[in-house]
Amino acid sequence: MNLGINGKRAVVCASSKGLGLGCARALAGAGVDLVLNARGAEALEAAAAGIRTAFDVEVTAVAADITTEEGRAAVLDAAGDVDILVNNAGGPPPGLWKDWDRDDFIKALDANMLAPIAMIKALVPAMMAQGWGRVVNITSQSVKAPIPQLGLSNAARTGLTGYVAGTSRQVAEKGVTINNLLPGIHATDRADMLDNTVVEKEGISLTEARARRAATIPARRYGTMDEFGATCAFLCSQHAGFIVGQNILLDGGATNATI
C-alpha cells in the first residue's frame, strides 16, 4: 500500500532502538525524512546511519533528553516545521505503590505526560496552519488495563490519554489527527528489563521468565518492533485521516476486554 506520505518530514522521539526505531524505519520506508532523537549519541548515530543506508531518506540525529526543556528545545530547533510527530519515552521503573513518593511521580509525569504534551503544543499549530498533520503517541496497554507493578506508568500515560482525547477533537477539523498506540510486551530493552526483574525476584532463568510472560499472551509471543512500526506508519498515512483520538492496542490480545 502506498501510504501517500513520501517527502513528508517527521520527528520520532526515543528512536535509537525499540519501538521508536521501529516507527522510524517504517516511516522511512514510506519515504519520510526524519529527525531522530534519543539520549545516547552512539546508538542514535548508528540507527540514523542504518536508516540512511536502507531507505535513502534525509535523517537528522539529535542526541538529547526529550523529557527536559533543554532537550526539547534542541530537537525542535533541528526539526523546524514538520508533518508528523511520534512521541515516545522510556517508561518509569516498576515497583510497589507504597514505595513511590512525589518525586517519583513528577519524573513519570515529566517523561510520559508533560513531554509529549509540550511537543504537541510546539508542533501542531504549524500542522494546523498547513491543513495536514499526524501525531502518534506511544503509550501502553496499561492505559486500558492497569498493570499493578507499573503504577507510575499507569498514572502518567492515562493522564496523557485524557489530554489527547480532548485535544484531538479540537484540531481534527484542520486536518490534524492525534492518536495513541498502546503496546503490550514487545521484544525490546523494556521487556528485557521487566523480565530481568522477575529473574532477580524469583530466582528463575531469563528463558523461563520470557516463556512465562509469553504464555499469558493469546498470541503466545512478544510483538516485534517492525509490526509496531508498520501500524504507526499507517496512522501517519493519508489513509488515516478519519481516525481521531483513538487508543489502539498492539498487545497480542493480552488485554481481556470486549471494547
How would you characterize this protein structure?
- Strand 1 (9-12), helix 1 and strand 2 (33-38) form a beta-alpha-beta unit.
- The protein has a 7-stranded parallel sheet with strand order 3-2-1-4-5-6-7, with helices on both faces.
- It has 2 domains: 9-184 and 224-249, Rossmann fold (3-Layer(aba) Sandwich), CATH 3.40.50.720; 185-222, no CATH class.
- The protein is built from 8 helices and 7 strands, in the order E-H-E-H-E-H-E-H-E-H-E-H-H-H-E.
- The model has no long low-confidence stretch (mean pLDDT 96).
- Helix 1 (18-29) packs across helix 8 (225-235).
- With 259 residues, the chain is of the alpha/beta class.
Instruction: State the total count of DSSP E strands.
Output: 7
Task: Identify the CATH homologous superfamily of the largest domain.
Answer: NAD(P)-binding Rossmann-like Domain
SSE string, helices as H and strands as E: EHEHEHEHEHEHHHE
Q: Unreliable segments (pLDDT under 50, ≥5 consecutive)?
A: none
CA radius of gyration: 18 Å
Q: What is the count of distinct domains?
A: 2
Taking the sheet with the most strands, its summary is:
7 strands, parallel
CATH architecture field of the largest domain:
3-Layer(aba) Sandwich
Beta-strand content estimate? 5-15%
Secondary structural class:
alpha/beta
Mean pLDDT: 96
Within the CATH hierarchy, at the fold level, what is the topology of the largest domain?
A: Rossmann fold
In order across it, which strands form the biggest sheet?
3-2-1-4-5-6-7
Total count of helical runs of at least 4 residues: 8
Overall, the morphology is globular
